[in-house]
């Protein structure tokens, strides 16, 4: 799957032409990390594709990482499992941490 093909699937998810299911992990993380389905929609609308789609043999889908902002403006990463047919999956959602300060004490 190319980035362009992934963008087309994401556009179809935004219009509800393709269903986006939530993995059990994603359901748990939405609440624990203070995100809502509205945040997911906002990021699907305005995002950068962080990685090209990669085939995930275990889940039989193409994993892609999107970076955008939650409705509150938090930099956020979505991990999606995209399929060319059938429903796609929200794998997880997480805050994007600044790589320069990761692991450092201030």
Topology order in helix (H) and strand (E) letters: HEHHEEEEE
Distance between the termini: 42 Å
Biggest beta sheet summary: 6 strands, mixed
Helix content: 25-40%
Overall outline? globular
Proportion of beta-strand residues: 25-35%
Structural class determined from secondary elements? alpha+beta
Strands, total number: 6
State the helix count. 3
Look at the structure and give the mean pLDDT: 88
- Model regions low in confidence, pLDDT < 50 over at least 5 residues: none
Rounded Rg:
14 Å
The structural domain count equals: 1
Please name the defining characteristics of this protein:
28% helix, 106 residues, 32% strand, alpha+beta, globular
Could you characterize the architecture of this molecule?
By secondary structure, this protein is α+β, with helices and mostly antiparallel strands. The protein has 3 helices and 6 strands, in the order αβααβββββ. Strands 1, 2, 3, 4, 5 and 6 form a 6-stranded mixed beta sheet that branches. It has one domain (3-95).
């Amino acid at each position: 799957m190319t980035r362009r093909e992934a963008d087309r699937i994401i556009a179809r998810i935004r219009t509800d032409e393709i269903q986006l299911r939530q993995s059990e992990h994603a359901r748990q993380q939405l609440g624990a990390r203070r995100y809502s389905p509205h945040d997911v929609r906002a990021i699907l609308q305005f995002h950068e594709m962080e990685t090209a789609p990669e085939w995930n043999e275990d889940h039989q889908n193409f994993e892609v990482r999107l970076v955008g902002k939650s409705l509150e403006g938090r930099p956020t990463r979505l991990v999606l499992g995209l399929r060319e047919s059938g429903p796609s999956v929200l794998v997880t959602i997480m805050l994007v941490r600044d790589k320069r300060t990761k692991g450092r004490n201030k």
